[in-house]
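Support request, priority: normal
Reporter: lab tech (M.K.)
Component: structure prediction queue

Hi team, I submitted a job for ARMD3 protein from Struthidea cinerea yesterday, and the status page still shows it as pending. I've pasted the exact input below so you can check whether something in the sequence is tripping the parser. The sequence length should be 689 residues. Please let me know if I need to resubmit or if it's stuck on your end.
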Amino acid sequence: MAQTEKKGGLLRKSSASKKPLKEKVVLMYDEIFTTEDPSKCNPRFWEELFLMKVNLEYLEGKLEALDGEELMKIKDNINCLFQHCIQALGEEHPIRVVNALQTLCALIRGVHQKNKSTSGFDIINMLVGFDKAELCMKNLMESLDSLLCAEGSESLKSLCLKLLLCLVTVTDNISQNTILEYVMINSIFEAILQILSSPLSRREHGYDAVVLLALLVNYRKYEVVNPYIVKLSIVDDEATLNGMGLVIAQALSEYNRQYKDKEEEHQTGFFSALTNMVGSMFIADADEKISVQTNEAILLALYEAVHLNRNFITVLAQSHPEMGLMTTPTSPIPTTPVTPLGTTPPSSDVISSAELPLDADVQTSNLLITFLKYSSIVMQDTKDEHRLHSGKLCLIILTCIAEDQYANAFLHDDNMNFRVNLHRMPMRHRKKAADKNLPCRPLVCAVLDLMVEFIVTHMMKEFPMDLYVRCIQIVHKLLCYQKKCRVRLHYTWRELWSALINLLKFLMSNETVLLAKHNIFTLALMVVNLFNMFITYGDTFLPTPSSYDELYYEIIRMHQNFDNLYSMVLRLSTNAGQWKEPASKVTHALVNIRAIINHFNPKIESYAAVNHISQLSEDQVLEVVRSNYDTLTLKLQDGLDQYERYSEQHKEAAFFKELVRSISINVRKNLAFNTLSQELLLKEFSTIS
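Reply from support: The job had stalled in the queue. We restarted it manually and it finished. Here are the results:
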């Protein structure tokens, strides 16, 4: 018997001796694409259609092939198909429901391709007709809500979420997607929460549910009252919030694990051996190959949860076993290919392992640690646009955390110590830190380490000014909390001071190049005021009196940098140029630093001369400092411990609009035919009673 092949809706014998035969569902689609009512000749047309396996490719291709005018001619049949799809969602037979859901996906995507400004029709009118739109969309949303909340098939729930993601992302700019008005009116918020609060549903659908929620929250968020924003901001159910946190932690952990695997593979490979042999000249090139696609969609979900819901802050510190260290006794599961900003969770097992009881021998982690590790990876390379957006979003999330009183309480809690292994950028002048030597410290130390790491590693020609400003602001907000609550943090403050002084040195060395693009005085002022914060209030939050002495030692030791900065800002503030005002602010801010340098330097020189010492040791300088505090006069500077709180709408609206647009495009791309045409659906529902 000749083998039968199937392609593009055609059935043909491999001998090709006869005219190709179209499969029945394709013939039925063709009837819909005429101006005649297909049920006229066959009253059971619609009933039969939803028993046929959907040919997504053919249906969507057929819709895309028509121009706007041709589509308008068959509008009645399109409306009829849409309405019958909605009716079929209420059927008892799962096969009909599956086929209806897939047909709706193809219809929405296919019709939306024609929704251009030149085509002269509205997508809602084209799909359902204005007169029936409200009732139809209400029925659709209620059916999807029922399917998502029912005890039934997980595959059906998965398809419902895919349809909703398809519906949300048909336009690049989701705020221009008029269909979403009906998703706002007929909310599925509770259904999403139910998925997140149930361990089984969360494992299967948590990722899609979280991404869907993040997108819905961003629909016209600056123009109207978005019910999803309102509802998300007041969620206080612990199981739901923890569920959301676990989904986000799992996705970020998977990214961290993939990066670590690639890094290890890279280090043990031939190229690594070659690098060791030749030297470190290839480090930059080698590092470029360690690239894993960032996941802005899940990061956006984390941001919205942290920004909108005060109760979610507690989830950040919720302990669970280190996901990367956990193993489960299940059989191996095939890994899903990771796609940029995708909607497919990398592996469902990680969440289940994270929900196991804590083992005393297993290193515990939490969402914040996982997020800090993720941030340390994506913030290494800000040249790539996606990583730049990810890095910026990471810093915005940390800004929200640094402003929150409760978050600061657990960040600085001495009883909550963790070993946080941040990724450090390979640099020629430093050795890679050994992971095993990491101490257990309060989480704020890891946040400060991350900020110091960023400051040290991004002084380059393409200077990421915006990220530096955010970085310094985060440090400032943490210091404000420490000063306010008199928290004496045992941290290696010298590393921060050294990084800040080197940053000032970089700004001065590259003054001409940087001033052509940035107002470097804003950043310089922030850095100087951090030192002023330590000078004015350091005795209330530095761990020991000797730490305060060391601050003075660093300022004196690096006085040349402060002298050079003063000369630069004085020069520009006395000229009538565009930088006169911002430079003069830095001049005034340097008053106490200059007072310290001018007070102690002569004393140190005198001590050296009297004791006939050409080069004083650190201890000798500190001795001079301690014995001359009483004659030092400093000016009290106002407002050092105050800051402007983060505001998304006024300052970040453009960034988020562009970010959500990028996420929408990528989510749509990843809702490919193969994710919708799931063979397992048909296997699962192979028998119809």
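Residues 238-268 form the longest helix (31 residues). The first strand starts at residue 4 and ends at 7. Let us know if anything else looks off. Ticket resolved.
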